[in-house]
Automatic annotation (TrEMBL):
Family (UniProt): Belongs to the FliD family.
InterPro entries per record: Flagellin_hook_IN_motif, FliD, FliD_C, FliD_N
Keyword Secreted belongs to the record: yes
Protein name: Flagellar hook-associated protein 2
Lineage: superkingdom: Bacteria
Keyword Phosphoprotein set for record: no
Coiled coil (UniProt feature): 390-417
Organism of origin: Novilysobacter ciconiae
Gene: fliD
Quaternary structure and interacting proteins, as annotated: Homopentamer.
Keywords on record: Bacterial flagellum, Cell projection, Cilium, Coiled coil, Flagellum, Secreted
Length: 452
């Protein structure tokens, strides 16, 4: 009689469970992976578009304020004793400037203090020092008893001042150490006053009045003559002597006039225009790349078929088209792909003839500046379209994670169900095999009895 076989888990039936579970999981995993891949790629694509548009926004911002006006070229005579820079508010013209004196730093020095008989630093004294620089607050320095050598006084002053207002150092001469105090401010505004109090009276030698301190540098103001007009300054930088011009004094040359001339300079404006063109082309390129259609042998870009890149491109090109006549007069040209380029010679000629041309287009109220800046703000702002789309995609990924976790739990339940079913099947087959063995045994005994 034939017997019933029981393959059981040990004979390979258990291998069906992973296969069945994998078959159950595959469609769901494929769906989740596809959605996740597409959403992640689109988030990245919108990030690249944002980078391109932000670059354009930054380039456009360079024309705000005085950025759309001609710059200033500053020319200074050879070995003039000063340098100069100017902003666009400076009036064109020529000036004769004589640097009569430079602003210097007030510096005081003590009398030399030799070492004591034992060869150690001698003690000047102890008590309180009060150092005032100009109209500033007094710096109070306490010198403890036994801590009154010039080196220790130097350290105490520097620790208290912290590099501000005044600095102290030692110069070691043949006759002994000399304490040198220097103001950190130039000119008469930085002159120091030193007073002492308390202690053993030894610090009185450092008082600026009645002590032994001598003036190493008086700390005088700078003085210049501009077209014969005298101007003094506590600093060697003059920011307001001439409107829009900063003059840095480097060398005193009393009685020697040197020229300073200001002429218009279109090069900064041209550089800003080239920067704008480059940023515009980069933005268009990013939009094209991220929305490109696929071909027979390649898939489409992440935003292929999405209306957003097309809408943004149309907005940018529309702003250019609306002002194309004025842009063309400045030497701008468009390529077949919509990109911009600049004819530098034509730009120079146009600006020379009409210095306000760029201001009318790209200044604060410019015909191109206003609509394009507004469009970029609406796209890139916190409530802008791109952020809205990106937030929606991130939200989709977040919900997808929840869906995947729910799916994983369902697959776990499926696996558990298969395991229970195959376990029951294994038990049933085992029981049937046991029954089969018993029946075979009984039939064998009956056959033997008949034969006997």
């Amino acid at each position: 009689m034939a017997t019933i076989s029981n393959p059981g888990f040990s004979s390979g039936l258990s291998g069906l469970i992973p296969q069945l579970v994998a078959a159950e999981r595959a469609p769901g995993d494929a769906r989740f992976n596809r959605i996740e891949s597409v959403a992640t790629a689109q988030i990245s694509a919108f990030g690249k578009v944002t980078a391109g548009l932000s670059g354009l926004q930054g380039a456009l911002a360079k024309f705000e304020g005085v950025g759309a006006s001609l710059g200033r070229k500053v020319s200074v005579g050879t070995d003039a004793g000063f340098t100069a820079t100017a902003n666009t508010k400076a009036a064109l013209g020529n000036y004769q400037i004589s640097v009569e004196s430079l602003a210097t730093t007030h510096k005081l020095q003590s009398a030399a203090l030799a070492k004591d008989a034992a060869g150690k630093d001698a003690q000047l004294g102890h008590g309180s020092l009060s150092i005032t620089v100009g109209d500033g607050e007094a710096i109070e320095v306490e010198i403890a008893e036994g801590k009154g050598s010039l080196a220790e006084i130097r350290d105490a002053i520097n620790a208290k001042a912290g590099g501000k207002e005044v600095t102290a150092t030692l110069v070691r001469g043949d006759s002994g150490d000399v304490l040198v105090l220097a103001s950190t401010k130039t000119g008469t505004d930085g002159r120091m006053q030193i007073s002492t109090s308390g202690g053993d009276g030894g610090l009185e030698a450092l008082a600026s009045s009645g002590g032994t301190m001598t003036v190493a540098d008086a700390g005088n103001d700078a003085r210049v003559l501009i077209d014969g007009i005298s101007r003094t300054s506590s600093s060697n930088r003059l920011d307001e002597a001439i409107d829009g011009i900063t003059i840095d004094l480097t060398k005193a040359k009393p009685g020697e006039n040197s020229s300073l001339s200001l002429t218009s300079d279109a090069s900064p404006l041209k550089a800003s225009m080239l920067s704008f063109i480059s940023a515009y082309n980069t933005a268009l390129s990013a939009l094209r790349t991220q929305s490109a259609s696929g071909g027979e042998s390649s898939s489409g870009a992440p935003l292929s078929g999405d209306s957003a890149p097309r809408s943004i491109t149309q907005s940018l090109r529309g702003a250019i088209s609306a002002n194309y006549a004025q842009l063309a007069e400045l030497g701008l040209k468009t390529g077949v792909d919509g990109s911009l380029s600049l004819d530098g010679s034509k730009f120079d000629t146009a600006i020379a003839a009409d210095p306000e041309a760029v201001q009318r287009l790209l200044g604060d109220e410019g015909a191109l500046q206003k609509p394009m800046a507004a469009a970029l703000k609406s796209l890139l702002g916190d409530d802008g379209m791109i952020k809205g789309r990106t937030d929606a995609l991130n939200s989709r990924l977040k919900s997808l994670k929840t869906e995947r976790e729910r799916f994983d739990r369902r697959i776990s339940d499926v696996q558990a169900r298969y395991t229970r079913q195959f376990t029951a099947l294994d038990m049933m087959v085992s029981q049937m095999q046991s029954t089969s063995s018993f029946l075979t045994q009984q039939l064998s005994q009956i056959t033997q009895l008949k034969q006997s």
